[in-house]
Amino acid sequence: MYHRPREMEKSLPSARSKRRGRSAALVRRFDPVYWHRFAVKPYEYSWDNRPGSRGSAVPNEDVAQRLDRMLGRHNHRLPDQVWIGTQGDPYPPAERRKRLTRRLVEVLAKHGCPLLLITRSALVLRDIDLIREVHETASATIGIALFSLNPKLSRLLDPSTPSPRDRVTTLSRIARSGITTGIVVPCLIPGVNDQEAELAKIFHVAVRYNLSFVLFPAYYSLKNRRIEPLENYPLELNPHGIEAVYEREADCLNNAQRESGRTLLKLSEEHRVPIRIPRFLPNDFRRENFWVAEMLAGIAHTRHLAGKPHRSFRTAARHINDLGFDIRNLIRHNIPFEHNWITPSVKPYLDSLLNGRWAALESGEAWIATAAR
């Protein structure tokens, strides 16, 4: 029987640790967006709020050795993929000299551990050989962060980073290598980069280069973003005036959020591009559990975008994800579902998943879209 690695959780340092080199890893119990539990930070970022400053990247020198020891002790219990570079780009300019991220990828290739990378930099192409090796033995997913394909808007939202054209070139080269690749839009800012025409361009790029996903992890957010002065926004990028964005009341922003969510669902269905990252499924009893949890979390995400109740689906997905036995054993032994987290709204969809009735549709994505209407 599988048990959650609590001793591993105790052995890892706290994510809030401030000592250099001691916050290299953290644990997330359930992440229905990136599908990871372990995240490794090759660089700590010290942010500077002064205009035009991007902060500095402080390397965690011993991060590869610590990850190697951790995987050596707990490889058979590793529950999900490892995210390299959470809370900061894993390929800052210092990576050309330090090569910390490359050493982390080498460790994951050595242990056959699945990998997730999200970056803005074309330097990821330097390590494409190692990433392909990880993808062949387990799974590798690369996301290229992109706010907008408009060069002027991209400079305002993401200064001192590669242009949208360069990022699309990087995307195309990664996609040709056969690795799971997609676009990650860190956040949508109302009245700035949430216009349907702007979002449609991103989906067109995904279709053109046969990308696996377009992800909106915080699909409508103004929190923790340092926005350029209002007068720096050209009028043609925001014809209604950027001042109107920040003068809206909370209910107006909620309405804009629901409108944006419906736009994302519409574009995803029209272009047949998923707005979720495909999940890695291990080759043990957790495979069924993780797959069912992924489908229920997909319904929760789609219903959230559509402005419908969704929390019960996410709660059920979390509990199934953490089960210590194969969920299909409940069906084989005719054990009824009496858990309080299986609500009447969730039970019909869970029955459909476990009995395989969704297979009559085109795909799991089509089933999720139908179930969320």
Give the topology.
Elements: H1 6-11, E1 25-27, E2 36-40, E3 43-46, E4 56-59, H2 63-74, E5 81-84, H3 95-98, H4 100-111, E6 115-119, H5 128-137, E7 140-145, H6 151-157, H7 164-176, E8 180-184, H8 196-208, E9 213-215, H9 243-246, H10 250-271, H11 286-305, H12 311-321, H13 328-332, H14 347-355, H15 364-371
Parallel strand pairs: 2-5, 5-6, 6-7, 7-8, 8-9
Antiparallel strand pairs: 1-2, 3-4
Helix pairs in contact: 2-4, 4-5, 8-10, 11-12, 11-15
**Residue-averaged pLDDT:** 77
Shape: globular
Unreliable runs = 1-24, 220-251
- Give the termini separation: 37 Å
Helix content: 40-55%
- Strand order of the main beta sheet, please? 1-2-5-6-7-8-9
* SSE order, one letter for each helix or strand: HEEEEHEHHEHEHHEHEHHHHHHH
- Look at the helices and sheets and give the structural class: alpha/beta
Q: Provide the β-strand percentage band.
A: 5-15%
* Counted beta strands: 9
Brief account:
The chain has 373 residues and is α/β, with parallel strands linked by helices. It has helices at 6-11, 63-74, 95-98, 100-111, 128-137, 151-157, 164-176, 196-208, 243-246, 250-271, 286-305, 311-321, 328-332, 347-355, 364-371, and strands at residues 25-27, 36-40, 43-46, 56-59, 81-84, 115-119, 140-145, 180-184, 213-215.
Describe this structure in words.
The structure is a single chain. The protein has 15 helices and 9 strands. With 373 residues, the chain is an alpha/beta fold. Helix 11 crosses helix 15. The N terminus is likely disordered.
